[in-house]
Task: structure prediction
Amino acid sequence: GLAPADAAAAEGWMSHRNNVPEWRDLLEQGLIADTIEVSGTWSQIGAIYEDVVAALKTVPDCVNASAHSSHVYRSGINLYFTFACMPEDASAMGARYLESWDRALNSTASAGGGIAHHHGAGRLRRDYLRHDLGENGLALLRKLKQAIDPQGLLNPGKLVKPDVDTGTKPSVALTDDTTDDEAGAW
Result:
């Protein structure tokens, strides 16, 4: 499990947990940052936390990796990981961003956790759904998508690839309409 924090630390966090700068302000300072929410059972969550924080800290130019929880259940808990990278070369920001997501989601899956919680899957999680659903689950999603949208007009390829899942890393353009993991879930 997780180690308890002292009361002052917990109260300080509670009173300031939603005080975050605008993303554009961070980008102007050369920082790329985001949150990634995952889930796990109580027996898994300690390893998920340790593994994901350690994996994020191995991303080149990572300056912060931490987590907090917002949802707790008898069966398990979610974690919101926050990461920030500050590459010297601004052209590396996109690569650091995607590498952070890759390491966090693969580490979560390796520790037995779920790659999402209440925000679901979208563009950034698409190629990691195989961890949670397996090939049969992905095939079922493709069949549902084909039945609901036979012409492929509704966000084609955003949740599942129309063909066989290759397990490759996502190719996400870092523009205003693609940085939100929840965008384009179907």
